[in-house]
Amino acid sequence: MKKIIVIFGGVSPEHDVSIITGCLTLNSLDKSKFQPVPVYVNKRGEWFTDKKLFNLGFYKEYSEKKLTRVTLSAGENVLYAYKGNKPLYAVAGAINCMHGGNGENGLIGALFELCNIPCVTTDTFTAKMAMDKTLTKIILKNFGVKVVDYKTVLRVDFYKDIEKTVYEVKEALGFPVIVKPADTGSSIGITVANGYEELKKSLTYALRFDEKAIAEKYIQDFTEVNCAAYRSNGKILVSELEKPISSHRFLTFEDKYSGNKTGCKKREFPAKVSDKIRNEVKDITEKVYDEFGFSSVVRMDYIVKEETVYLNEINTVPGSMAYYLFYDKISGLTDLLTDLLQEAFKKSLSKKGNAYEFDSDILSFKGVALKK
């Protein structure tokens, strides 16, 4: 039976949301093919495993007593007990369920790659690109994909001269503007500013969560739609469009996670949009997924204003693995996870076909006088 690490939690404002995705994944994995191994990362970044971690109710009165602290070692596909360095499991694969932080910026995927463990997650570069909203917009524009006008604000520059920074954002974008931390998701740290003083407060708030914030021109009377993609048997599968519904000016954290199992309080699925918009969103989703070289399941969030489509954000570790965009029942997550693991295994096997050795005489130091 292939042992599969399901890693979740983490040092991130999205820690609690990640627990939900992790538990859902642990309990949905096909037990006839895989043995799920929970690895919970606490808010200090420490790793733990135990059967109790399967139960979502455990986290209401969380205690680390009797949990086993664990770690990995570079070059080995083995999960070790932290104390005593005792090997616990030889690991066949992993599923990244860590939202935000080191889970979504590519570092966890890089760690598993160093340990030769195939992981359901996207590559380090594409993960970092998608996590950083500024990088996302720069690269999307070069691919001819429309993005909303924006301006980046660094924390160091903001506190060096607050008035100057706020004035430059106002001059570039006008009002209203929507302000976000550049490297977080789940609508954490996001506000809308309608004037100069509000903008100052919004930037101060966003920069609590990240060293970089992004201010975007607020599009009035827009429609938000989501679309996801993943690869199965070498083919990119694109979901139907979802329209999340909110009574706020943007989709809040509460809208996303205080509702039903889909992670949205209210939703319209499939979204009632024109065929033109539907086809354009699906085409962009497939194009971006393919050309950026994404892996695993990726959800892309769009803003639609009349007949203009803007790609707003890319989520490489979406809540609940975005299974609900492909299946109408929770049982569909089992099939999705199997597909994602099989693709991760294939990708890892393909990399093993690369040549990593090259014979040379460079260390012979011929003709070089070595001195102590």
Summarize the structure.
With 372 residues, this protein is of the alpha+beta class. The chain folds into three domains: 2-120, Rossmann fold, CATH 3.40.50.20; 139-143 and 221-326, D-amino Acid Aminotransferase, Chain A, domain 1 (2-Layer Sandwich); 149-217, Dna Ligase, domain 1 (2-Layer Sandwich).
Specify the structural class: alpha+beta
Number of DSSP-assigned strands: 18
SSE string, helix = H, strand = E?
A: EHEEEEEEHHEHHEHHEEHEEEEHEHEEH
Mean pLDDT: 90
How big is the Rg?
22 Å
Your description of this structure?
The protein has 372 residues and is α+β, with helices and mostly antiparallel strands. The chain has three domains: 119 residues, Rossmann fold; 111 residues, 2-Layer Sandwich (D-amino Acid Aminotransferase, Chain A, domain 1); 69 residues, Dna Ligase, domain 1. The chain contains eleven helices and 18 strands. The chain has an eight-stranded mixed beta sheet, sandwiched between helices. A four-stranded antiparallel beta sheet has the order 9-12-10-11. It has a four-stranded antiparallel beta sheet with strand order 14-13-17-18. Helix 4 packs across helix 5 and helix 7 crosses helix 8. The longest helix has 20 residues.
